[in-house]
Automatic annotation (TrEMBL):
Entry-linked Pfam families: Amidase
Family: Belongs to the amidase family. GatA subfamily.
Cited InterPro entries: Amidase, Amidase_CS, Amidase_dom, AS_sf, GatA
GO MF term set: ATP binding; glutaminyl-tRNA synthase (glutamine-hydrolyzing) activity; transferase activity
Top-level taxon in the UniProt lineage: Bacteria
Keywords: ATP-binding, Ligase, Nucleotide-binding, Protein biosynthesis, Transferase
Any single GO CC term annotated in Swiss-Prot or TrEMBL for this entry: glutamyl-tRNA(Gln) amidotransferase complex
Gene3D superfamilies per the UniProt record, alphabetical: Amidase signature (AS) domain
Higher taxonomy: Bacteria, Pseudomonadati, Pseudomonadota, Betaproteobacteria, Burkholderiales
Active site per the UniProt annotation: K84 (charge relay system), S159 (charge relay system), S183 (acyl-ester intermediate)
Annotated organism of origin: Corticimicrobacter populi
Function in brief: Allows the formation of correctly charged Gln-tRNA(Gln) through the transamidation of misacylated Glu-tRNA(Gln) in organisms which lack glutaminyl-tRNA synthetase. The reaction takes place in the presence of glutamine and ATP through an activated gamma-phospho-Glu-tRNA(Gln).
UniProt catalytic activity: L-glutamyl-tRNA(Gln) + L-glutamine + ATP + H2O = L-glutaminyl-tRNA(Gln) + L-glutamate + ADP + phosphate + H(+)
Subunit and partners: Heterotrimer of A, B and C subunits.
Name of the molecule in the record: Glutamyl-tRNA(Gln) amidotransferase subunit A
């Protein structure tokens, strides 16, 4: 028996629903109740949510209705969203999908959560993720794997798999995610939704549980680029509580309005160019992204998308990012090193799970960490501790940081004289089957080859739907990877929006009971 679709799915996106809410054609509470019903009904199928608390959600919906009634409503008043379980939130537990934090309830909101709540967004709850954001399939979680709404035998991607699945299943209009090495873009690709990782430092990391501090960046997932604009414009902005937050973006203040203004300026330029709105746009196509490791069905979908961009007036330019393969060893030295430092605070003394039985203090810490952390987290902590240890720091960590600088320089050389934006696949294949790599814990690391360099360089990148696989994978989506120069989120989103006006991949919806 098929359940009725939630009310918000009757609208094209956030802007259309906002208009209906402000016209009082429906209430935020009605929207929230229908979204809650859908999320709860689909929980057993997808496992996207880790906590739903209807009373907390309805409190926010009633507050949104009150603001709509008195004219004080923010730009997202009444819009149903949900948060990755890596953002601390008042009221809901924040577990990072780990036994180490399974009962933690934060006394404060992360800055991202506070900004979205201040704009009136109504949260349905917390979303499943890989433990401490460490994974590419959303299988490393105490709550069980997230299943892909398009094919429940497939992974949803990670670490923001719950965020992507909730949008794909139309439980909410948008979600928050985090991206350390592709953890917004890859699940967005696998689940057929849109997601953007903004330039490092433009979205506050305060209250976002840390994995790799120089790599982590929060961002939104939604059906299409216009909804990403609505979310990112609220989420981004300078935060004095975050030491990595940037106050200025190429001379423009990092505040609400920056992304929207840049998006609308790019749209205005496109509209002056008639039927070929992207005339003059140079798209760099890295030859390293189309090598032997790329699956034929992904290659076909991405090449068809690039041909569509050509028909819209863009020019394709062959470029090289020669250190693409080296991004994997560089990332898997730097990220575990930072993780080993960040996660050292969870020792059972001050933070996190404490073992029930132990001998002395050292035994208590060892037992607490062994019980609290899952296998993948332990693996990365051990790698990180090793590469930072005496005698290995220079050989591994320092060399990885030098390589990171060279990878960033490769991107800058491409942007300096060859292209305005870079495009290619997000991942070498469509979503794999659940459980496929259980006997090879590092196999998923290789699938991050196209996304890692963007994080190492701190650039903005996004994924938009551009097709499906073939044969047995004909129901598994393919994402197109768009990479921009620093602080170029508005133009990236406008380019994506132009493509989504010319195609309908983002409108496809999985069949769910």
């Amino acid at each position: 028996m098929t359940m009725s679709h939630p009310i918000h799915t009757e609208f094209a996106g956030i802007a259309a629903l906002r208009e209906a809410l402000r016209a009082r054609r429906l209430s935020a509470e009605e929207v929230a109740r229908s979204a809650l019903e859908a999320a709860q009904a689909r929980h057993a199928t997808l496992n996207a949510f880790v906590q739903i608390d209807p009373e907390l959600t309805l409190q926010q919906a009633r507050a949104a209705d009150a603001a709509l009634a008195d004219g004080s409503a923010g730009p997202l008043a009444g819009i149903p969203i949900a948060h990755k379980d890596l953002f601390v939130t008042q009221g809901w537990r924040t577990t990072a999908a780990s036994n180490m934090l399974k009962d933690y309830v934060s006394p404060f909101d992360a800055t991202v959560v506070a900004r979205l709540r201040g704009a009136g967004a109504v949260s349905l709850g917390k979303l499943n993720c890989d433990e401490f954001a460490m994974g590419s399939a959303n299988e490393n979680t105490i709550f069980g794997a997230v299943r892909n709404p398009w094919d429940t035998a497939a992974v949803a991607g990670g670490s923001s798999g719950g965020s992507a699945a909730a949008v794909a299943a139309r439980n909410v209009l948008a979600t928050t995610g985090t991206d350390t090495g592709g953890s917004i873009r890859q699940p967005a690709s696998f689940c057929g939704v849109s997601g953007i990782k903004p330039t490092y430092g433009t979205v506050s990391r305060f209250g976002m549980i840390a994995y790799g501090s120089s790599l982590d960046q929060g961002g939104p997932l939604a059906r299409h680029a216009r909804d990403l604009v609505e979310m990112l414009d609220v989420m981004s902005g300078f935060d004095p509580a975050d030491a990595t937050s940037v106050p200025s973006c190429n001379g423009t203040r990092n505040e609400s309005g920056r992304v929207r203004d840049a998006f609308e300026a790019a749209l205005a330029t496109q509209q002056t160019q008639g039927e070929r709105p992207l005339t003059g746009l140079r798209i760099g196509v890295p030859r390293e992204f189309f090598g032997a490791g790329l699956a034929d069905d992904v290659r076909a979908a991405v090449q068809a998308a690039l041909a569509q961009f050509e028909s819209l007036g863009a020019t394709l330019v062959d470029i090289s990012l020669p250190r693409t393969e080296l991004s994997i060893p560089a990332y898997y030295v730097i990220a575990p090193a930072e993780a080993s430092s960040n996660l050292s605070r969870y020792d059972g003394v001050r933070y996190g799970h404490r073992a029930a039985e132990f001998g002395d203090l050292n035994d208590m810490i060892a037992r607490s960490r062994a019980e609290g952390f899952g296998a993948e987290v332990q693996r990365r902590i051990l790698i990180g501790a090793y590469v930072l240890s005496h005698g290995y720091y220079d050989a591994y960590y320092l060399q990885a940081q030098r390589l990171r600088r060279l990878i960033a320089q490769d991107f800058q050389q491409a942007f300096a004289g060859q292209c305005d934006v870079i495009m290619g696949p997000v991942a070498p294949t469509v979503a794999r089957n659940l459980g496929d790599n259980q006997n090879d814990p590092t196999a998923d690391w290789l699938a991050d080859i196209y996304t890692l360099g963007v994080n190492l360089a701190g650039l903005p990148g996004m994924s938009i739907p551009c097709g499906f696989g073939q044969g047995d994978h004909a129901r598994r989506p393919v994402g197109l990877h768009l990479i921009g120069n620093y602080f170029d989120e508005g133009r990236l989103l406008a380019i994506a929006d132009c493509y989504q006006h010319a195609t309908d991949w983002h409108t496809h919806t999985p069949e769910l009971a």
